[in-house]
From TrEMBL, chains A, B, C, D:
Keyword Oxidoreductase found: yes
Top-rank taxon: Bacteria
Family: Belongs to the Gfo/Idh/MocA family.
Protein name per Swiss-Prot or TrEMBL: Inositol 2-dehydrogenase
MF (Gene Ontology): inositol 2-dehydrogenase (NAD+) activity; nucleotide binding
EC numbers for this chain: 1.1.1.18
Biological source species: Rubrobacter taiwanensis
Pfam families on file: GFO_IDH_MocA, GFO_IDH_MocA_C3
Keyword line: Oxidoreductase
Gene: iolG
Top-level EC class: oxidoreductase
Domain Gfo/Idh/MocA-like oxidoreductase N-terminal: 5-125
Domain GFO/IDH/MocA-like oxidoreductase: 133-253
Amino acid sequence: MTKDVRVGLVGLGRMGRFHAANLAGRIPGAHLVRIVDANEKVARENSERLGGVDWSTEYGDLLEDDRIEAVIVASPTPLHADMAEAAARAGKHVFCEKPISLELSRTYEVIETVRSSGVKLQAGFHRRFDPDYRTAREKISAGEVGDIYLFRTSLRDMRSPGFEFLKGSGGFFADVTLHDFDTARWMIGEIEEVTAFGAALSDPGFEEIGDIDNAVVVLRFATGALGVIDNSRVAGYGYECSSEIMGSRATLRIGNHRRVAVQTLTPDRVCQDYVSDFVERFAGAYRSEIEHFIRVVREDLEPEVGGADDAAALALSQAAARSYREGRTVRPESGIKDGAVFYEVRK
Amino acid sequence: MTKDVRVGLVGLGRMGRFHAANLAGRIPGAHLVRIVDANEKVARENSERLGGVDWSTEYGDLLEDDRIEAVIVASPTPLHADMAEAAARAGKHVFCEKPISLELSRTYEVIETVRSSGVKLQAGFHRRFDPDYRTAREKISAGEVGDIYLFRTSLRDMRSPGFEFLKGSGGFFADVTLHDFDTARWMIGEIEEVTAFGAALSDPGFEEIGDIDNAVVVLRFATGALGVIDNSRVAGYGYECSSEIMGSRATLRIGNHRRVAVQTLTPDRVCQDYVSDFVERFAGAYRSEIEHFIRVVREDLEPEVGGADDAAALALSQAAARSYREGRTVRPESGIKDGAVFYEVRK
Amino acid sequence: MTKDVRVGLVGLGRMGRFHAANLAGRIPGAHLVRIVDANEKVARENSERLGGVDWSTEYGDLLEDDRIEAVIVASPTPLHADMAEAAARAGKHVFCEKPISLELSRTYEVIETVRSSGVKLQAGFHRRFDPDYRTAREKISAGEVGDIYLFRTSLRDMRSPGFEFLKGSGGFFADVTLHDFDTARWMIGEIEEVTAFGAALSDPGFEEIGDIDNAVVVLRFATGALGVIDNSRVAGYGYECSSEIMGSRATLRIGNHRRVAVQTLTPDRVCQDYVSDFVERFAGAYRSEIEHFIRVVREDLEPEVGGADDAAALALSQAAARSYREGRTVRPESGIKDGAVFYEVRK
Amino acid sequence: MTKDVRVGLVGLGRMGRFHAANLAGRIPGAHLVRIVDANEKVARENSERLGGVDWSTEYGDLLEDDRIEAVIVASPTPLHADMAEAAARAGKHVFCEKPISLELSRTYEVIETVRSSGVKLQAGFHRRFDPDYRTAREKISAGEVGDIYLFRTSLRDMRSPGFEFLKGSGGFFADVTLHDFDTARWMIGEIEEVTAFGAALSDPGFEEIGDIDNAVVVLRFATGALGVIDNSRVAGYGYECSSEIMGSRATLRIGNHRRVAVQTLTPDRVCQDYVSDFVERFAGAYRSEIEHFIRVVREDLEPEVGGADDAAALALSQAAARSYREGRTVRPESGIKDGAVFYEVRK
C-alpha cells in the first residue's frame, strides 16, 4: 500500500482552514499531521474540529517534525517567503499561497532556495485547476477557438475586506489582478503591454489609504491579441470570476456560476442564486490544486504552476500599478531564463 | 398597386382590441374599415383610439358594409358560430377565434356553410404562427428529431378569469387544453388515446361550478408516442406556454419566455422577468396569424389552420372531459372526410 | 481522536466502485477495510487501484471480519436482501442500494431483521442528498412555495442497459420510476392514486422481453395535488433528472445540469455540454449519502431514508406496473405502522 | 381621423429597405409616398415590392414633392449632411442615419440649418429604442442600480463589410464605436476620458487600409465611473450587442440574444441559436425609432435623440481615434451650448 504524503499546514485563516479540512479526509493519499497558527485558540479549536490533529503555535515545530514531507503555507502574505524558504531548507516540499512575496527579488530568492534544496514548489493559483477554465483551455489548445482576438475576464469580490487588511495587501493590482494575469498568461500567452485604470468609488477610505476599489486593465499579448480585465472589491451582488475568449473559429464563455441548479419563479420573474465568494465558487478547484500538489510530491512531478508563474504574475501586477500611477502604457520585458519565464519592468 | 384587403372586426374584448390595433397600421395589405361591439361606449372609444375607423353596435352593419371582404370574429364564444356563418353567407371571408362552437355538430355546420359559400375560414390557433413553435416543427419535419418518443407541453395562466366567465367557457378542457390538442396534432400527429386528470385546488369556487383549475392529460399518438399536457389556471408566477419534444435523434425545448433580455443581479441572486399573459407571450404570433389571413384572402390560399382543425381540437377536448368525468382512458376515432381530418368520440 | 468507521463493501459494479473510491480517502471519518466481489480479477484490481485494501471473493469474509462495523451492499439487486440481512445478523450496520428486494414481503423481512439486530439500515436513494433537491425541499418546507398544485419530474437515461440486465431488473417501474416515487413522497407527501402509461418505441427487443422504454405516470397526492413523472431509457441527448414544483406562492425548477459552466459560440449558435449519466450528475449526492451513513453510524442517528421508504417506493412501483398492465388507475392504501409509513396495493 | 404623416425615403441599402418596409404598412400613422435611390433598378424593384409607391433616382424629386412632410435619410454616410440640410431647407422633417457627417463642424452646420428651418432632426441611434436597453436605463434612473462603478459593453459584427466600404466608413471608431459612445452617454452620463486600443488581427487588409478589426476603449465618466467598450468586425459566431452595468445596489446585464426560444439537445450538449446581424437583433428597435419619429412629427415633440447627440458621439469617436493614434489617454472637453451638450477634443 502506497504511503500517504504527510502534510503540515501553517496559517489557519479562511484558506488555511479550507485546505486543512480537505487534507483531513477528503484528499486520497494525503495525511495531515500538524497544523500551526500563531493564535493558540485558533490552532487548538481547528485541531479539535479536524479530529485531533497535532497543533502548534510555532512554525518551528512543523519544521522540526520529521514526519512532515510537505508544507502548505497559508499564512498572511508577508510571511510567505520566509516560511517557504524555511520549509525548503528543512527538505520539505512547499505549496505556497500567492503571492510568494510582494517583492519580485525576494520571490526569485525563494525560487532559488527551493531549487537548490531540491524540493517542489507549487504556487496557489487555484483557477488553473477549475474544470471550467481547464475545459476552455483545452479547447483553445485543440484549436477549436482558432486565432484569438480578445480575452476578457472579470474578477470581483462581493464586499471588500477591511482597510486594515488592505493596507498590507500589496495594493489592488497585486492582491486582486494578480490572479487574472496568471490566467491570461496560462490561457492566451505572454503579455507585452499593460495599461491600467482605477477608481475609488464606494468609500473615501480607499483613497485615504492610496488604493482603489475598481479597476480595468487592458493587455496586449505577444500575439497581438487584446485583453481586458475588470476587477472590483465591491460588486455587491456576489462573487464573479468569469471570462470570454473570442477567436476566429469560436468564442468561449465561462460564467453564470450558481450554487444550485434551482430556479424560483414568483410573480413576473424567475431567479437563481449566485455564488457569493471564492470558496463557494472554487471549492472544487481548491481541492484539486491540493490533490495535484500531493501527486506532485508522491510521483515526483513538476507542479503545473510554480514559482516562475508567481513571479510573472507579480511582475505584471507591478506593471499595472506603475501604469495606473503614471497614466501610461507599460511594456514589461519578458524572456526565458533557466527554462522558466521571467518578466521585468524597466521603464 | 395591389388593393388592401378591407376588414371588419366584431368583438372588442382583449383579443379583439389587439387584432384591431394590428389591423390599423401594423399589417401591410390590410385596411380596417369597421369595428363592432354591442357596447356602444367600447365601440366608440376604440374607434377613436384607432384614428376614427367606422363603428357600430350592430353586427348587421358590418354584414351590409359592401366594402368589407373579410371579418375577424372575436366576440364571446357562444356568438362565434352564428357570426361566422352570417359572414360566410354575406360572402365575406372569416377569421374566427377558437373554438368556433362548443358543440361539435354546430362546428361542422359552420364548416359546411363556409364551404358552400366559397369563402375562407381560418381558426384562431395562434401558436401555429409562433416562431418558436414553427422552428421546432420545421426541425421535426426535417427529421432532426428522429422518431418521437414523448411530447410534453405546459399551458398555464397566471390567474384565473372570474367564475362568471368560467361558467360560459365550455369547461377547462375546451377553454384551456384545446390549444394543446391543436399543437399536439400539428406537431406530432393524430391522437388515439386521451386520459385526463384534474383537480380544483386553489379555490372552492371551482368545485362549486363543477370545474377544475389544474389538469394533466396523457396522450397516446397514432405512432405510439406518448404525450403529456399540463394546464393550470393559477400558475401564479406568470404565463407559461412551453413544450418539449423528445426523439431518437434530438430533443427540442421551447420555453423560458422573458419580456426583455435583462438580468438583474442583487445580493446572492440573479433574476429575469417572465411573461405574464398570452398577449405578451404571443404578440408576434397574433400579428402573424392575421397577416396570414390577409395573405390567404389576397392570394386565394388555403389557411394553414381551418375549421377541421378547430373541430378536431374540440373533439379531443370533449374526449378529455369525458375521460376526466368517467375516470378512464377515452379512445376517439379519427379519419379523413372530404380531405380533412375529423374526430369522433363514440365510447 | 474520534475513531474512523470501518467499512466493508460488496459489489464492485459501477456504483460499488464509485462508493469504494469515495470511501478510500474522500469521506472523512470512514475507513474502507475490505472489498468483496465474486469476480476475483475485479476484486483484486480494485484493491490495487484503492491502494491495497483487503479483498475477497466471498461475502462471508466480510461478515467474519471483526474490524468491520458497517457494510455497503452494492451487489446486483437479487442479492441485496440476503446480504443486508446477513450483515445485520453479524451486527453490522447496512447501507443498501435500492431496491432492497423486488418482493415487498421480502423487503419487510429485511426491515424486521435489521430492527431486531439493532443496527442501522440506510436505503440508496441518493437524490435525497443532492443539493438541488435539498434546497427545493427546504423552500417547500419553509412555505415559500405555498400550496402545491403540480409536481412534475423527469428521469431519463441516455442509453438503455442491455436486455440481459433488463430481464433481471424487476421491470421499468421498479428499476427506473422507483427513484421518482421516493422523491415524490419525500418532497410532496403520500400518494393516493397511480396511473401509468408506457410504450416500447426504440427497439422491438423491449416488447419481446415484455418491457417498455418510455413511460408517463400520473399521481394524485393525499393533498389533492397532481403529479407527473416521465421516464425514458433512451433519451439520447444525455441524462436527465429534473423536476418542477408549482405552488400557489412560487414555482421551483431543478434542471439544466451541465458538466462545466462553459458556453461555446460558433456561427449562429451557442452550446453547452450536458450531463450524460447518473454518476456525472450525482457525484456529490453519492458522496453525501455515504457521508450521511458514516455519520448515522458514528453518532447513532436515524438515517434520513430507511427501509420503510424503500418499501414504499417499491409498493408504488408495483402499483404503477399493475396500472400499466390493467389500463386503469390504481389506488394503493397507505398508513403508519411501527412509526413508519407502509403502502399496500390490494386492488 | 388624424392624417398620416407622409414620408419620403432616400437610400435603399439594407437599412433603407428595412425602414421602407416598415413604413409601408407596419407603422401606424405613417404613409410612405416616395422612395429614392440613385440606382434605377433598385428604386424600381423596391417600389414594386412595396406595392407600387412612387420612386425616383433623383433626390430633388423628393424635395419637390409637396406631399412629403418628413424624410428618412438612409443614403451612404458622405451624403447624409447635404441631404439632411436640403430636406430641412425644403421644410421637411429629417430622420438621419448616423453619423450625420464625419466632420464635426459639418454636423454643427446641419444642426444649425435644421434649427433655423424650424424642422425636427432625429439621429439614427436605434439602441435608444430597444426594449432591453430602455428597461435597463429605467432601472438606473429609478435608482435600482445605485451608484455606478462600471459600464461594460460589446458591439461586434459577425463578419466585416468589404474593404471598399471600410475605406469610406470614417474608420473603426466612427463606424462602430460611435453607437457605444451614444449608449454610454445616454445610460451613464458624460465622458471625461477616452483611451483606445486597437488591433488588426483577422486579415492583413485592415492594416493596409490603415484600419483595425478589433478594439477596446476605456472610458472614465464625469462621475468617476469606469467604462469599457469592446468592438469587433469579425466576431465570427454572430452579432453581439450586450452590456453590463455594475452598481452599488445591483448589476444589470443585457445579452444572450437569440432568435427563437428553442433549445436543441443532442448527445452531450444543448444548443440555442444566436442572432447574426443588427437587423435581426434590433428589428423592433428600428421599427420603434421610426414610430418615435412619426410621433415627433405628428405631435410636435422633441426627438429623444437629436443632432447634438450625434455630434457628441462623433466627437468621442474622434477622441478614441486620436487616443489610438497617439497611444495616450485623450480628455475631451464638454459643456452645454444652446441647451444641448457639445464635446470638443482640443489636445
